[in-house]
Design brief:
- The chain is an alpha/beta fold.
- The protein is 52% helix and 18% strand.
- The protein has a five-stranded mixed sheet with strand order 3-2-1-4-5.
- The longest helix is centred in the C-terminal third of the chain and has 23 residues.
Length: 190
């Protein structure tokens, strides 16, 4: 059984650890299922994350079937797998945490794109993106102007933020893209 783990915080400020299991059945079919979406208590240390994960492993009696892990690049994931190795060693099972850790490709691509677009100054991106729109219209205008100074990519970011601000705008954008797809298909095939 191979695993994907991730910590996240819900909009109501509760932390959760998601545990997804991946395996190939006897007939050769790939399966993935959510094994746990557990409330995460305490600090986000690797040891604490491993303890929450290990509770899920024990629940499903998977202690002898632990395979590889797909995790993001957070440094506490190194500690998580080291601690999983300790649990497995107590059962007499050899486990190399470095060998068993795979990096999440989506997360790697996200980091590469941020580095490409914003260079080493990702604080600009993170700081502006994390601002709450409830700060008022004046703050939103200042934010838009700061992003416009970033050039075309900043303008593109502003457009995306505007579209994603409401479900109605997202639906309108989706409908516009679909109509463009139909128009493009008609022009291409006629």
């Amino acid at each position: 059984m191979h695993f994907t783990l991730d910590l996240w915080t819900s909009p109501n400020h509760r932390a959760f650890l998601g545990v997804v299991g991946h395996w190939i059945s006897g007939d050769g079919k790939l399966h993935s299922t959510l094994l746990g979406l557990r409330r995460f208590h305490g600090s986000h240390t690797g040891v604490n994350q491993a303890q929450h994960f290990w509770e899920v492993v024990k629940l499903y009696q998977l202690e002898t079937k632990v395979g590889y892990f797909t995790l993001d690049n957070a440094s506490n994931n190194d500690t998580t797998l080291t601690q999983v190795g300790v649990y497995l060693a107590e059962l007499g099972i050899e486990f190399n945490p470095t060998e068993r850790r795979l990096r999440c490709f989506g997360h790697v691509i996200n980091l590469v794109v941020k580095a490409f677009l914003w260079g080493l100054n990702t604080e600009v991106l993170e700081g502006l993106a994390s601002r709450n729109s409830s700060e008022g219209d004046g703050q939103e205008i200042i934010e838009l102007m700061e992003w416009r100074r970033q050039g075309p990519m900043g303008k593109l970011r502003n457009i995306c933020v505007w579209i994603c601000r409401t479900p109605q705008r997202r639906d309108g954008f989706t409908n516009k893209v679909r109509s463009m797809d139909r128009l493009g298909a008609m022009l291409l095939y006629h």
